[in-house]
Amino acid sequence: MRIFTFMRPLYTDATTHFEIFVTDQCNPSPRPIEHLCLAVDDLPGFIEKCRSMQVEVARIPKGDKTLTFIKDFDGNLFEIKSSS
Question: Could you tell me the residue range of the domain that residue 26 belongs to?
Fold first, then answer.
């Protein structure tokens, strides 16, 4: 089994850990994960912090909502939504 650990300071002085476990004991999913969404307590504050760190932020209108996406420095795209 291989464990990939991504540790980056995202919003506070704390470091966020995101781990992916890869093992040869799993069968491939017929439908891989195409979308990852993270919830934050303070969406406007998170967006402001991302922009201050030159993290790309996209706000996309969809119906009566606006979706928020960020692209990290490795090019990974994440949807960000409010936890409330």
Answer: 2-82
